[in-house]
What we know:
Number of helices: 5
Largest sheet: none
Shape: elongated
Distance between the termini: 20 Å
Strand content: under 5%
Number of domains: 2
Number of strands: 0
Structural class: mainly alpha
Amino acid sequence: MVGLHQLTWIHYRLQEIYPTKADQDFGGLNIVLAGDFYQLPPVGSKPLFYNKLNHILDHTKGQQLYRLFNSTIQLTEVMRQQGEAQKAFRLILSRLRVNAQVTLDDWRLLATRIAAQVRGRGEDLGPFSLAIHLYGKKA
Length: 139
C-alpha cells in the first residue's frame, strides 16, 4: 500500500538519517519491498507500478526509485489459509483477487464471516475482537 509519493519520502528520509551516504539512493541501504499488487491501492498516491508520464515531482522520483528494484521473488504457496477446512475460503479469495466469477455459494460463505452476522446469532465476537477492520471510505 506504499505509493510513489511515499517511496520518495522514504528515500529522502533515509538520506537525511545517513548523511554520509546521502548521495546514494535510500541512504545506501538495501531495501526489500514485500506485498501483493492485488491488495488495496495506496491512498492519495499512484501505485508503484504506475508508468505513465506525470508532472508531480515526487511521483517521477518514485518511478525512478522503483525501477531500481531489479529482483523479484514470487511466493506461490498460500500459508494463511491452510488445510482442507479452509480450502473453500482460500479459493473464494483467489477468485476475488482477480475479479473472477464469484458464485452465490461463495457469497454465502463470506457472509458467515461478517461481524454483524456473527453478533446477530448471539455468538461471541472473541475470534474477531482483534481483527483488522478495512473500510472503503474514511467516513
